[in-house]
Amino acid sequence: DEVAELTPSLQVKLLRMIEDKKIRRVGGEKEIQIDVRIISATNKNLEKAVSNDIFREDLYYRLSTIQITVPPLRERKEDIILLANHIIESYCRKDDVPIRRFSSEAEEIMQEYSWPGNVRELQNILGRTYYLCSKDVIESKDLPIPLLENNSALYNDYLNLKYKEAKNKVIEGFEEKYLLYNLKNNNGNITKTAEKCGMDRRTIHRLLKLFNIIYKNDE
Known about the structure:
Layout: H1 8-20, E1 22-23, E2 32-33, H2 46-51, H3 57-63, H4 77-95, E3 101-102, H5 104-112, H6 118-132, E4 137-138, H7 145-150, H8 152-159, H9 163-185, H10 190-197, H11 201-210
Parallel strand pairs: 3-4
Antiparallel strand pairs: 1-2
Helix pairs in contact: 4-5, 4-6, 9-10, 10-11
């Protein structure tokens, strides 16, 4: 992965390994014969790197026998929801919890976002969403702020509401995320969470009921 980031010395070693089909283990004295196929990936323009003397030309031709260009995620909008569902399902299966799904509005926001960090950014954002949202359905307000800021339609919805209603929706979204974050950091302990947040236990329980959040550790 990220073969363009290899240092010149590592490029030489990789080229030698490809040509000689031999490797030597760290600390070893004997060379070991290998028979492998190499799949490398990069998000850089290797031809340009070669012309700028950043990447070895001979290594480039060794690696580029078959090239597959994968468009960025923003150009594969039809894949975003498939990948998002797969990522969330993986987290759910790992923790042995019911599979969560996305609301239609949340799906729309993810498809409209430009995803400059591609799949890695998608994994990072959905990992954060998974741990901060305990509901069966992940809604638009549960998604991290960068996605919401990118979605003008959602902001227009808020702007078209009455002031108090729009304000209440924003506050509710903050309260839920704030509560989930601090509960997680205190292992679900309500007493510790209340102390950390400067709130009383009754307020914590009221918010848990309001947002339908269930925590096993209720001490």
